[in-house]
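Co-fold these.
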Amino acid sequence: MQQTTGQALEVRLSAYIDGELGDAERAELDALLARDEDAKVMLEKLKAGSAFGNKAFEDFLHDPVPLALVRQIKQGPGISPRAERVATANLPAPTIRVWPRVTAAAVALLLLGGAVGFIVGSTQYVAEPEGSASTRPWIDEIAEYHRIYSRQKEHLVEAPASDGPKIETWLASSVGIGFKTPDLASKGLNFEGARLLVVDGKPVGQLVYRDREGDIFAICFLKGSEEPQTDQFREDIRDNLGLVSWQKDGASLVVVGPSSHAGLRDLAETVAASI
Amino acid sequence: MRPAAETKDFRRDLVSLLPKLRRFAMTLTRNANDADDLVQEACERAIARSHLWNGEGRLESWVYAMTRNLWVDEVRKRKVRTGGGAVDIFDQSELRVEAVAEKAVYANQLQKMILSMPEGLASVFLLINVEGHSYRETADILGVPIGTVMSRLSTARLRLAAMLSENTERRA
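Predicted complex below.
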């Protein structure tokens, strides 16, 4: 307990708010507050400042944390954040590289005319972009979808959780994969509902969850994938998002959430065991 | 030597702490770039010294104190480099607003207001009012006497109340 006798009133009342005073001093201030209007006003001012400051500081927690640092801490020394970033984080999706080629093809069509232009354009469009094997385009697209949809306050999902079993029927028939919506309440996640996405021309089911802090997490799954089938978990980071992906029974699955969330892999393991 | 699983837990706890650690660092540095550098340095040091963490109390208190010490060292170095002498910012009796806080541009108006508070106020307010540390813990983390913690806290609360009032009047 602190002794504040003799100090400025705001200092004493501040300690009073925090319960840092002994019984005698607290009783003294109780009596003062009962009879002195200025003291009451001061107390209210201190409380108002506290409430306002709490709100302001809450906003700081939504800022992204340094991603290279997250990886470095998770994976231990010997990992170079810069090398990691080059190796796995935020590589451009192949579709981005295709556009200049399509544009070039369109110009060629205009200049050279019908058949020749069409052949040039088609050939260039289907050309395999360099390095596409390592970019994991479906993961990139899932991250982009998540980044956009998770900001939707009123239209976070297409089918709300209240639709219950209808969601499973709808997504199973659309995606071609039977599944059970995982109950992640034990992980502090509340099921919000679902969406149907399209990635690389394939339907993707997305189950959306929200934690107590309002952060959005999603489980996405699609039938098959061009990646080699493995039940090993793989972690990727795309800007402020972390993605843990794996394959199971001919389906590709990924859990998406804030990269600063330390339990993303545990969450993926729970999902893998229950979906 | 600390067992592997325990080390893994320490790292995991440290990652979980990052958003809060960065917020604390922001109250010290009052600009995002310095805060990120400081957080990185603090985490590297915490991992290197994780064998010294006894698992008792709050991990954040231990890491915060480390972060604060690193920042005081950094400020000292900067002051020496710029010829201002080695003055511990937390030992200064006069509170002042640094130009860096005024110049910083942050998207969030509330954050901007917080970071414009005179040196030393935001850290005390964060630790006690927002994160629930006791006066004693706060004094230990920041390396200042409890009396300083108390006076800075009440000053911070009154400044925030004034900001709220100005904000309300501006909106009206």
